[in-house]
Amino acid sequence: MLALANQNPVLMGLEVALSNVIDGMKFNADLFIRAHGNTKVSNSTVIDNPKVNTTSGVVTGATTAEGHAFYSVPYGEAPIGELRFKAPVPRNGKGPIDGSGPDYVNCFEFPLNCTSDDKCDKYYSEDCLRLNVFVPPTIDFSSPPGEKNPVMVWLHGGGFYAGSGTLEFYDAVKISNQTNTIIVSVNYRLGPLGFLVFDENGTRLFEGNQGIKDQQLAMQWVQDNIEKFGGNKSMVTLFGQSAGAQSIMYHLMSPVSEPLFHRAIMESNPASFPYPTKEEAINTVTKGLLRALNCTGSELQCLTDAPAYMLLELHVQTLMFNENPDLFFIIEPYRPVLDGVEINEQPLKFFQSGKWQNYKEVVIGVMKDEEASVNVLLKNTILVLSMFESFLNWIVGPENGEKVVEKYSELAGNPGPGYDYTDLLAQAAADLLFVCPTRALTRDHHPLSGDACVLNPDRCGYAYHTLDIFHLFNVESVTSDVFATNDTAVAISQFSKFWSNFAYHGAPSKEPFEWPPYVSKSLNDQSINEWTNIRLEAPTTSPESDFRQELCDFWDTLGFYVNFTSADVTTEPTEDNTETTTGAASVLIANVFVLLLPFLPMLALASQDPVLMGLEVALSKVIGGVKFNTDHFIRAHGNTKISNSTVIDNPKVNTTSGVVTGATTAEGHAFYSVPYGEAPIGELRFKAPVPRNDKGPIDGSGPDYVHCFEFPLNCTSDDKCNKYYSEDCLRLNVFVPPTIDFSSPPGGKNPVMVWLHGGGFYAGSGTLEFYDAAKLSHQTNTIIVSVNYRLGPLGFLVFDENGTRLFEGNQGIKDQQLAMQWVQDNIEKFGGNKSMVTLFGQSAGAQSIMYHLMSPVSEPLFHRAIMESNPASFPYPTQEEAINTVTKGLLRALNCTGSELQCLMDAPAYMLLELHVQTLMFNENPDLFFIIEPYRPVLDGVEINEQPLDFFQSGKWQNNKEVIIGVMKDEEAFVNALLKNTILVLSMFESFLNWIVGPANGEKVIEKYSELAGNPGPGYDYTDLLAQAAADLLFVCPTRALTRFMSETSTLSKPSVYLYVDHHPLSGDACVLNPDLCGYAYHTLDIYYVFNVESVTSDVFATNDTAVASQFSKFWGNFAYYGAPSKELTEWPPYVSSMNGPSIEEWTSIRLEAPTTSTEYNFRQDLCDFWDSLDFYMNFTSIEETAKVTATSPGPTKPVVKPLTTEKATVIATDKFPMLTTAKTTNASTTTVRPTTITTGRLLATTTSKTSKVITATTTTMESSLETTTGACNTLVANYSVYIVYTIICTYLLHLLGQ
């Protein structure tokens, strides 16, 4: 349904962006505007400036060889001050009007399509009641032209909250010339400015339908003025698309509109959408907006004082404060209301009864693939039956849903388990929202093709919602190239001809056989009636009969889109129940954001692979129209492995895995994709790794990379996926500096650095091209080893069968240990010193290193450690907790029958990873840590039996080792980027924090961080505070605690724990592809400098970038050699406590930035002292009794879980929305699920009162598979679906589903 949100064709590129976050190909809105934005004078020389005296004033236009254009002509007074939210007032002549362009004024919309304040101020204004007039060259303004040409008035789409009639895209010079008609394109107010209904003290102050009244005023302006432009005011045709077509449907019912037009063309009209009554509008959208504004005092004053941009930017929050959102409210919260004066009956009933202006000619039509967005968004996700059912049950209710599932399943021959229902969902959505309510005369079959597919590859071959606009306005291809031949045929030969014929004659064709009217006729004198429409496609149109007749007959019998409430059935206002409404909003937060959170404030954890990191940036840019292009990035950096130098030798090294051949260049030696473990397949799947036996020579000269399966898969075709991914992925790369000479055995002398990549333990790869360490090896004169390890369920699954523990978990950690053992066994042959091994890693890689610093198995395998951006607060689940959360979730997502073990063993590897989202959803009480890292190290009772921070605090870690640890200054800058066009008001800030840390702590956190902003008043944007709070909670303060524990318990003779804070922000050329992160030192940015990849733009580093990269090389190299990052302690002193005066304790870290580092003291001391006092990230469950495994026991004794005394929480549920399930195994079908009660870490508990404005929650136990299905995830389904359709925040859900 996403297409409804973006009728503005430039914004339409945002949909494409969402579908292309993997492929790295995105419609670039800014590029598009540059390509087409100045077509208003048809790129021809202005040859005259005609003047026309209108009721608004004397308007000066621009004449070219193609025709005349009059831009941004005001038809109404500025609706500001007392006129805000009111019916429009005609514009009085106030002097000359320059309509020669290019000054465009657009009404405020959501999202704002501008990237800076200057652009926003230029493009948007409340004084936006403007229209454009396009006149063909046949009109001569040398004398008064008189009335002669038909007039066509364009009403744009955009869900009544987006789009603009004066958008550059809708330049109608060509279509005016080709049709010889006058074209008028109209702006009207959007969102709350255009459709708000409001009462105060029982008095109706704002009636709603302001945007519709704007259209009516523009139509009156046409009646009053169009003759002076050569137009015939008695031959006015309204034409519009989507919400514009809905508007026309209104005008065909309205007595006010009736005399103002004479014919109508409705393109892609979602005719099923009901009009709310005014009371319904108040109880849903108005109350939601007022709560989002967080008004105090007079609500009227609050509304009239709020900046226009804020009213539109609060779109998402307004949706969230609704207790029972339905499909129509979510898609179009702002839309026409039943005012009881003009309209008092639902549209379809009104037309059915014949009360419409039934003497007018009408063209109406749909696109063949209206909902192709579904195909695009779910292109890499298998939509199985249970998920198909859940979507439909939410949309049409379970009773109708069952019938719809049955009907559409018949189309696919009632397929078995594992079938992908994506196409059926797309068709069902199109039939419900467009095709069947319309039962139209026309249908456009012409798909996207040719050059247009370059920027829209996933839409190729679809005739999708909004595509007709490109053909209608004859914009020569979305690629700024010329139309393909068939595009031209549709645009010129068909649209231009049919629409102009209709404007002139009231019929789209002179010959009825070319386009017959839509009437019923008897077929062969039998009882079968046939309804005829035309099939619009290239090279020619053709008649067709009864398009989707059977399906639309089926939908008609359901009566779903006819029996809506009318104005005579009024809705009583409900009480303003703060607790109920807050609870509803909290449900959205606690369930939508539960799954979105790792891909929202904490999204950085999910994509530590720097190429995949670009995908995060892409999601933050779906408004701005700029995206990190992964394919481009890989092309730019993917072959740096031999530093773009000529290979001058191929050294051979005899290892325990076999003889490895590498590649030598001037920068050094590289050995790629060296296997260190046997392929973990067959009986070895989910098991501890086995060392690789010598199986003959190994070609490590590249460029053959093998990656472990991850989520999401970073490939765009089967060929790429088969090339990049394999379960036989236990590989490593070895980079050797050029000082090592392989002409004789090099011996062991150089320090070794082993890189462990991040990615939330389910994404990333150590052998990724990006992590080419040739430069780092050369600059530090060290041996660099980068390691692959298994991810997701393949790397961290715990599983029991019949009481026997078959899979212990921590397989990925054991992979790392085996790689470290391989280094001990082989690195001397590469010139490395096996007694000087430093582990370094980022994010989940740093978490891994924290594990190794506790593990007795890992202890002899390394000697020093560097942890970059370590989310040290994350607790380890016990094995039982892992089973009760992620394992059971995965099994339910697989929908196994029979042996669960066999199901797991038979499932394709890619499926186990692709079911990541579904696995998350099958959890009753997901906490923050489970959502961000469902797969992570577990407390196995053997190696580790205590939570990490407790372990380090007690001094049990390997406290004889030197450690560097650090964070980025702006770890959670993704919050700023993602919410850049959304105002995060206090209530939202509260809801986030209450869900994360519980209401008791939440209240304290809100108070603490509000103090940073001086305790601001209503309307303050809390985005920056949320970003800082998230960074402090997940990274900065737990890292400080960990560093202090290590410093205080170290047994080395001299202080050897070092802390840094990286302040160096994204800047210079790198900002071109990442403008929203410009100026931030964000999570993952340090990787670029550590590995010295010369700028994310593929240009050379800026001067400051080079300086920071040099610092990393120097400090990391020094540490590998000497155990200290600098020889001079004044340059980087160890992290120890010292006294500054009698009572001030100082802890010293360094401030990493360009051009030089500097010492700083007590970074965020006050805030971290505060977090420490909450004790939030310390008291997690540990194992009290270590599990003991004996050779004779049938399996390990299960560890005992310490009971929790913290609050418990559960998803709030209703019976309305059943749970999602997903699978594509060959043996999958519905299965009974055992009742479960989940105990996990720290349940992020929530309770509420009217004053606290937080979640009301109770503890429940699932009692049956049906109750589990209905209870655990229903709200997720409802609100996931909600946000799939229409919120910027849920682009992150689309990131999950789309990838």
Automatic annotation (TrEMBL):
Q: Which UniProt keywords apply?
A: Hydrolase, Membrane, Transmembrane, Transmembrane helix
Membrane-spanning regions, if any?
1280-1298
Task: Kindly provide the name given to this protein in its UniProt entry.
Answer: Carboxylesterase type B domain-containing protein
InterPro entries membership: AB_hydrolase_fold, CarbesteraseB, Carboxylesterase_B_AS
One Pfam family in the UniProt entry: COesterase
Domain Carboxylesterase type B intervals: 49-533, 650-1171
The record, for PANTHER family, names: ACETYLCHOLINESTERASE 1-LIKE (PTHR45570:SF2), CARBOXYLIC ESTER HYDROLASE (PTHR45570)
* Family listed: Belongs to the type-B carboxylesterase/lipase family.
